[in-house]
Specification:
The structure is a homodimer.
Chain A (H helix, E strand, L loop, with lengths): L2 H9 L8 H9 L4 H11 L2 E2 H8 L4 H13 L3 E6 L5 E6 L1 H5 L1 H22 L7
Antiparallel strand pairs in A: 1-3, 2-3
The structure holds a DNA duplex.
DNA sequence: TAAAGTAGGTACTTAAAAGTAACCACGACG
DNA sequence: CGTCGTGGTTACTTTTAAGTACCTACTTTA
């Protein structure tokens, strides 16, 4: 964020009222966020440890950060069972599901571009 | 990016083949990117200086970075006229336009959530 | 002659994000 | 008794991105 945005954010609530799209994109940005949502979307509710293993390579710190952020944004739901050992299950909240059509549209575009770029990168394949 | 992703990226081309969505999101992430696309989408083709003034607060360095990135991703088109002084005009490329439906859907969600959150934040408004 | 506008490039600094490693309580298991 | 697994937290380090300031070359204008 720029200093201009920062100072503006101190006066009003947040500069992103000019661009709410940014606020949502900020949720999806980090290196692991879409992975986490993808696992929850496709595999269903998951515990912390399962999530950590399935995402593969993520640290507990970052996973916690992401989950806290997604929870605060109400994209995921956190279910804490104070058993011994404690069981914490994360699931996709209704708001998370609201993103599905948009993410699917984005996925279509992304796959199409990927294919186009791959073909443009190696036209030699056509001759072989 | 994690070290696990990095080492994987050295073996294959890029880890993002697992998640092309990430690749597209990475284009839209930076603090100013959606602003720039927004200006180009709504105001039409713009010169570098115009863009810099209209975005408001962005530095020439970051604007250049973003435009180069968007140009490489073929979301914007760069038209360089070697006049004195040189005129460089940026416009939305076809691929940039392909994002429109998705961005509009994202905007709908973002606006809805913003409204919901604002109402949830101050329920006192209902009593007044 | 000096400033302003054209479209950036370069060097340096700073701030934020990500990664790494160690640690906690607790109980089961060997 | 020591380690594993639960779900994290904390402190520290590294990496990356962003910001700031100054520079180019050329022309027009005051």
């Amino acid at each position: 964020m720029s200093s201009a945005q920062k100072s503006a954010a101190q006066k009003s609530e947040d500069v992103r009222h000019e661009c709410p799209v940014d606020a949502v994109l900020r949720l999806l940005m980090g290196p692991w966020t879409t992975y986490i949502l993808y696992v929850l979307r496709t595999q269903g509710p998951r515990r912390f440890g399962e999530l950590k293993r399935e995402v593969g390579g993520i640290s507990a710190k970052v996973l916690t950060e992401r989950l806290r952020m997604l929870e605060e944004a109400r994209l995921v739901h956190r279910d804490y069972q104070a058993t011994i050992p404690p069981q914490v299950t994360y699931s996709l909240a209704p708001r998370g599901a609201e993103l599905n059509p948009m993410l699917d549209a984005l996925k279509d575009i992304a796959l199409r571009w990927q294919t186009e770029d791959a073909q443009a990168a190696r036209p030699r394949q056509a001759a072989e």
